TrEMBL record:
<keyword id="KW-0007">Acetylation</keyword>
<keyword id="KW-0443">Lipid metabolism</keyword>
<dbReference type="GO" id="GO:0051750">
    <property type="term" value="F:delta(3,5)-delta(2,4)-dienoyl-CoA isomerase activity"/>
</dbReference>
<dbReference type="InterPro" id="IPR029045">
    <property type="entry name" value="ClpP/crotonase-like_dom_sf"/>
</dbReference>
<dbReference type="GO" id="GO:0006631">
    <property type="term" value="P:fatty acid metabolic process"/>
</dbReference>
<comment type="pathway">
    <text>Lipid metabolism; fatty acid beta-oxidation.</text>
</comment>
<dbReference type="GO" id="GO:0005739">
    <property type="term" value="C:mitochondrion"/>
</dbReference>
<keyword id="KW-0413">Isomerase</keyword>
<comment type="similarity">
    <text>Belongs to the enoyl-CoA hydratase/isomerase family.</text>
</comment>
<dbReference type="Pfam" id="PF00378">
    <property type="entry name" value="ECH_1"/>
</dbReference>
<keyword id="KW-0276">Fatty acid metabolism</keyword>
<dbReference type="InterPro" id="IPR014748">
    <property type="entry name" value="Enoyl-CoA_hydra_C"/>
</dbReference>
<protein>
    <submittedName>
        <fullName>ClpP/crotonase-like domain-containing protein</fullName>
    </submittedName>
</protein>
<dbReference type="GO" id="GO:0005777">
    <property type="term" value="C:peroxisome"/>
</dbReference>
<dbReference type="InterPro" id="IPR001753">
    <property type="entry name" value="Enoyl-CoA_hydra/iso"/>
</dbReference>
<keyword id="KW-0576">Peroxisome</keyword>
<dbReference type="InterPro" id="IPR045002">
    <property type="entry name" value="Ech1-like"/>
</dbReference>
Length: 277
């Protein structure tokens, strides 16, 4: 595994990689160099043939991430140029900066491999953005969530408002937490369908995520990566468009030898071994 300044990246078991946000002294709060590094990590893992599942968590006992490091962001005028005499040019600079930020965080969602996000402690602002990009969300019982952006004077713009309404079933609940920035806990997140598991401690949550990653890694990578792609496509398109896309996708994927291996292993009651993808 490569060494990074703001992240710990290791492989606790074969084919499963654990990525930890590593700025615990600042509650894992992000500034620009961190989100650029995050994109580099997930772009690399996406195409690594040795990786079949990824666990994303935060180092330290207090936070998955407290979100954006507001002090550092304020010094940079949030990507804008307050001295620009033309508001249109200032706006273009800000728009480009936000698009770059969005692209870095979206690298989690665009990653070909399934990503399991483990949250604990403070999970504010950008922490919600990042977790909504993940495929599976797990948390510890002490997790404190908040869509925090209205408390710093803006609408969330890195992905929460686009993705969260498609994850949970209640528009009313999404608008309540986004408009109020109120803190909600693990059990409420579970009740609303934002997370699928709650564990007593961070350590137990990470352990469960790694175990789940091991299970995903044991499956055909052709099937797993195709399933992620098709589920994300279905979320963003009509049923008719999704069925058409699925047919095109599987016209290629169904030719894999993994199908024969999986079927034979079922008949013989053995564990199949699949080639790298």
């Amino acid at each position: 595994m490569a060494t990074y300044k703001h992240f710990l990246v290791d492989s606790p078991i074969p084919n499963v990689v654990h990525v930890q946000i590593n700025r615990p002294q600042k509650h894992n709060a992000f500034y620009e160099a961190m989100w650029m590094e995050l994109k580099s990590i997930f772009d690399t893992l996406s195409t690594s043939t040795d990786v079949r599942a990824i666990v994303l968590s935060g180092a330290g006992p207090k936070a998955f991430t407290a979100g954006l490091d507001v002090e550092i962001a304020a010094q940079g005028s949030f990507g804008g140029n307050k001295s620009a005499s033309d508001p249109a040019r200032a706006a273009v600079a800000i728009k480009r900066h936000v698009a770059e930020f969005q692209d870095c965080i979206s690298a989690i969602e665009k990653c070909e491999k399934p990503v399991i996000c483990v949250m604990h402690g403070f999970t504010f602002g950008l922490g919600i953005d990042m977790s909504t990009c993940a495929d599976i969300r797990i948390c510890s019982g002490d997790t404190k969530f908040s869509v925090k952006e209205v408390d710093i004077g803006l609408a969330a713009d890195i992905g929460t408002l686009s993705r969260l309404p498609k994850i949970v079933g209640s528009q009313s609940w999404v608008k309540e937490i986004a408009l109020s920035a109120r803190v909600f806990g693990a059990q409420e997140a579970l009740q609303q369908g934002f997370v699928s598991q709650v564990h007593e401690t961070k350590e137990k949550a990470v352990e469960a995520a790694v175990k789940l990653g091991e299970l995903l890694a044991s499956k055909s990578p052709v099937a797993v990566q195709g399933t992620k792609e098709l589920l994300n496509h279905a979320r963003d398109h009509t049923v008719a468009d999704s069925l058409r896309y699925t047919g095109v996708w599987n016209s290629a994927a169904i030719q894999t030898s993994d199908i024969e291996k999986a079927m034979l292993s079922g008949l013989k009651k053995t564990n199949p071994r699949f080639e790298k993808l």
